[in-house]
Write a structure and sequence with these properties.
There is one protein chain. This protein has about 230 residues and is an alpha+beta fold. The protein has one domain: Fumarylacetoacetase-like, C-terminal domain (Fumarylacetoacetate hydrolase, domain 2, Alpha-Beta Complex). The strands form 5 sheets. A 6-stranded mixed beta sheet has the order 4-3-15-8-9-12. Strand 1 and strand 2 form a beta hairpin. The longest helix has 10 residues. The radius of gyration is 17 Å and the shape is globular. The N and C termini lie far apart (about 40 Å). The model has no long low-confidence stretch (mean pLDDT about 95).
């Protein structure tokens, strides 16, 4: 086939301990999946249903030095467990959900919080607050064939060595199996899909020069540093 220009480069994430790469198709994100963060954002965890939104595939970055994004005075960090999908299915039974999972990583859902606040107030989409360039730093993927399917463990974020977020996977309102089951009623999940499963409380601002260190017990570590934007 003749293209009018060269197709964009495929977004990929390395697989830990292997000379392989995971090609990214779509990024699905879950909002308000920890009760403490739901309250932090002014919601009621007893009443809220899962909030799903997306980032474009090329928002993924494995770079460790990132440019501070433009059009924001309030860049905010959200550390999250990332689920990498290698199976296909719609209307998935929770008991089957793990069959679709290739592995896990730790990632950051970076957010232009000021733009998000304006969009929320106006009832507008969140796209420019969530889906900007390099808004999804992700660690190498740990295959489930090696680590299993962790349902518990710590998830933390330090900024310049100071603890900001300190949560536990077992505190998710909707665990991974349920997230896959619910999301698969809306879209057919396909190989290459990533699911970011929500963040614990403690979200906060990031400044140029800050170094962020994210970790998910038994899954992976991620460190990024922000430079001033050009």
């Amino acid at each position: 086939m003749n293209y009018v220009f060269e197709p964009p480069k495929q977004a990929v994430i390395p697989v830990a301990g292997e000379g392989a790469a995971f090609p990214v198709r779509r990024i699905w994100c879950v909002g308000r999946n920890y009760a403490d963060h739901t309250r932090e954002m002014g919601g009621d965890p007893a009443n809220d249903a899962p909030i799903f939104f997306s980032k474009q595939a090329d928002a993924v970055t494995t770079d460790r030095t990132l440019s501070f994004p433009v059009h924001t005075d309030n860049l905010s960090h959200e550390v999250e467990l990332v689920v990498a999908i290698s199976g296909t299915g719609a209307g998935i039974d929770p008991d089957r959900a793990e069959d679709l999972i290739y592995g896990y990583a730790v990632g950051l859902d970076m957010t232009r919080r000021d733009l998000q606040a304006v969009a929320k107030k106006a009832g507008q989409p969140w796209d420019l607050s969530k889906g900007f360039d390099q808004s999804c730093p992700v660690s190498a993927i740990a295959p489930s064939s090696r680590i299993g399917h962790p349902a518990a463990g710590g998830i933390t974020l330090h900024v310049n060595g100071k603890l900001r977020q300190d949560g536990k996977l077992e505190y998710m309102i909707w665990p991974v199996r349920q997230i896959i089951a619910i999301l698969s009623t809306y879209v057919m999940l396909c190989p290459g899909d990533l699911i970011m499963t929500g963040t614990p409380s403690g979200i906060g601002p990031v400044r140029p020069g800050d170094t962020l260190h994210a970790e998910c017990t038994g899954i992976g570590k991620l460190e990024v540093t922000y430079t001033a934007h050009s």
